[in-house]
TrEMBL record:
The keyword S-adenosyl-L-methionine does not apply. GO terms for biological process: 'de novo' CTP biosynthetic process; pyrimidine nucleobase biosynthetic process. Pathway: Pyrimidine metabolism; CTP biosynthesis via de novo pathway; CTP from UDP: step 2/2. It catalyses: UTP + L-glutamine + ATP + H2O = CTP + L-glutamate + ADP + phosphate + 2 H(+). Its EC number is 6.3.4.2. Catalyzes the ATP-dependent amination of UTP to CTP with either L-glutamine or ammonia as the source of nitrogen. Keywords: ATP-binding, Glutamine amidotransferase, Ligase, Nucleotide-binding, Pyrimidine biosynthesis. It comes from the Eukaryota. InterPro entries: Class_I_gatase-like, CTP_synthase, CTP_synthase_N, GATASE, GATase1_CTP_Synthase, P-loop_NTPase. It comes from Lupinus albus. This is CTP synthase.
Length: 607
């Protein structure tokens, strides 16, 4: 097994995740099998209990693991299926060591950070690296490890020590360290400054790790003299210093690495030159070149409560992008803060109220993603009501599905007091209830998580057609509440159709409004399994329906456009942010393809 470690220096947010994923793409293009591990030094056991404002979305794996969003990037870039053990946290390591100590596995020894914690980290990496993640038998050829945080962080020290020991454990020729660092350009003099990277590498070397390659982030390509200076002071060969400068979209990153022969430096360090082939990135190159070719757009209103942080809905954005690309459309996402749609906002902040409703009514389709808590719920209900009454394509995910059911029960059944017990535990007439198997005392890992099977109940429903008329689908879940099974007959008699259910037939998974052009809610999260070239069927259906809406309101010259369902041509979407007239905040940086310009955040080619 060969290992590639990616670390970061100077500042956070340099794009280590994109760099690690791009390295994986490049090595996979060389004919190697690749797996990935993300190390997060925080004490949480997993990402499940953290707010999206802390680390962005919680990505859910097939096995129910609630992990860092970077594992979503790995899965999308490399088209693999990871496990919860591919995300290592300080909490997991300490928990495992303490459990061994309680069992007496250490035979009375004093349990210390070195060697017991550091050994546990190394053992974990070796064990997980051998788990196949690409559907083939046997371990991968290369494991790409990303160390979260920045070199020098006190919380990362046990991992730094463990990885230093690990490089000696696996031996020369089996370990390659790539250090991602910043080479800033001072506007005053316009000069690329190497000193931050020099200090970062010196600190890294002082901790027992020596980089084999430097991946330098900068606004423009590094000058030859700058590379020579870094080579001299950082003790890294000139050929092993690559520039990751700002690019129009992140599809360029693997190509940048390839053009600078980063793969040759990595393969040489790992003694793989004789077994690897020249990287084949034809499809990738095509996707990168044509990403700006689409001129017709599709406008989707995203109604949520974390609209000020795009990373909170990262996988949803990627799934929308995959679907838009398949239909030859540029994606424009209108961020609509759910609370701004509510009547109370019309009195407290009429301008925001007017903007929010303007964005919603100007959209070709509406999406209400998952979430927790009661903030903004009434706004989401109003969005679902508007979509239902005005035949606007609608997709509700998890909470979004529950919202759609609540709105229908209130508006059509006349049950004006119906709600979810999540919002009102004492509700007398709830149409969404707490699942009986859930825990009310513990938050972490107690939801209905991971891949679960949904069986179609109606053969010719829209959802079944989108999934190619299969009898069941396996999708990933993350929820504590469900539609009240005691109200199903009442809801269906009024016109709703629960076309997908679990294996028991008592848990609702997919709801449709047959009289509507496209009104679908799903209890699962289809965005987690969407891939470039293989968009989620439900997202593809939403975009297709939204394109139909756009064609009916456009002039005849636009209405003659032909949609190419299922084709993947690659393009750069535009993510347009409106947050009470202000630009939306994001934890991503320009390497991730996100650039801020006034009120608009452009997301170019990110998947």
């Amino acid at each position: 097994m060969k290992y590639v470690l990616v670390t970061g220096g100077v500042v956070s947010g340099l794009g280590k995740g994109v760099t690690a994923s791009s390295i994986g793409v490049l090595l996979k293009a060389c004919g190697l099998r690749v797996t990935s591990i993300k190390i997060d030094p925080y004490l949480n056991t997993d990402a499940g209990t953290m707010s999206p404002f802390e680390h962005g979305e919680v990505f859910v794996l097939d096995d129910g693991g609630e992990v860092d969003l970077d594992l979503g990037n790995y899965e999308r870039f490399l088209d693999i299926k990871l496990t919860h053990d591919n995300n290592i946290t300080t909490g997991k390591i300490y928990q495992a060591v303490i459990e061994k100590e309680r069992r007496g596995d250490y035979l009375g020894k004093t349990v210390q950070v070195v060697p017991h914690i550091t050994d546990a980290i190394q053992d974990w990496i070796e064990r997980v690296a051998r788990i196949p993640v690409d559907g083939k038998e046997g371990p991968a050829d290369v494991c790409v490890i990303e160390l979260g945080g920045t070199i020098g962080d006190i919380e990362s020290m046990p991992f730094i020590e463990a990885l230093g020991q690990f490089s000696h454990r696996v031996g020369h020729g089996n370990f390659c360290l790539i250090h991602v660092s910043l080479v800033p350009v001072l506007n005053v003099v316009g000069e690329q400054k190497t000193k931050p990277t020099q200090h970062s590498v010196r600190q890294l070397r002082g901790l027992g790790l020596t980089p084999n390659l430097l991946a330098c982030r900068s606004t423009k390509e590094l000058d030859y003299s700058v590379k020579a200076k870094l080579a001299q002071f950082c003790h890294v060969p000139l050929s092993n210093i690559v520039t990751l400068h700002d690019v129009p979209n992140i599809w360029h990153i693997p190509l940048l690495l390839k053009d600078q022969k980063a793969h040759e430096a990595i393969l040489k360090t790992l003694n793989l030159l004789s077994v690897a082939t020249e990287p084949i990135l034809k499809d990738w190159t095509t996707r990168t070149k044509v990403h700006d070719d689409f001129h017709e757009n599709v406008r989707i209103a995203m109604v949520g409560k974390y609209t000020g942080l795009s990373d909170a809905y990262l996988s949803v954005l990627k799934a929308l992008l995959h679907a838009a690309v398949a239909h030859n459309r540029k994606l424009i996402v209108e961020w609509v803060p759910a609370g701004d749609l509510e009547d109370v906002t019309s009195k407290q902040d009429p301008d925001s109220y007017k903007v929010a409703w303007g964005l919603l009514k100007g959209a070709d389709g509406i999406l209400v993603p998952g979430g927790f808590g009661d903030r903004g719920v009434q706004g989401k209900i109003l969005a679902a009501k508007y979509a239902r009454e005005n035949n606007v394509p609608f997709l509700g995910i998890c909470l979004g599905m529950q919202i759609a059911v609540i709105e229908f029960a209130r508006s059509i059944l006349g049950l004006h007091d119906t709600t979810s017990t999540e919002f009102d535990p004492e509700a007398k007439n709830p149409c969404v209830i707490f699942m009986p198997e859930g825990s009310k005392t513990h938050m972490g890992g107690t939801m209905r998580l991971g891949s679960r099977r949904t069986y179609f109940q109606v053969a010719e429903c829209k959802s079944s057609n989108l999934y190619s008329n299969v009898s069941f689908v396996d999708e990933r879940h993350r929820h504590r509440y469900e539609v009240n099974p005691d109200m199903i007959s009442q809801l269906e008699s009024a016109g709703l159709s629960f076309v997908g259910k679990d294996e028991t037939g008592s848990r609702m998974e997919i709801v449709e409004l047959p009289s509507h052009p496209f009104f679908i809610g799903v209890q699962f999260h289809p965005e987690f399994k969407s891939r470039p070239g293989k968009p989620s069927p439900l997202f593809s259906g939403l975009i297709a329906a939204a394109c139909e809406v756009k064609r009916t309101v456009m002039s005849p010259s636009y209405g003659q456009t032909k949609l190419t369902n299922g084709s993947y041509n690659g393009h750069s979407p535009t993510l347009k942010s409106h947050q009470n007239g202000k630009g939306s905040n994001t934890t991503n940086d320009s390497l991730n393809g996100i650039y801020t310009n006034g009120n608009v955040v452009y997301v170019d080619g990110s998947f």
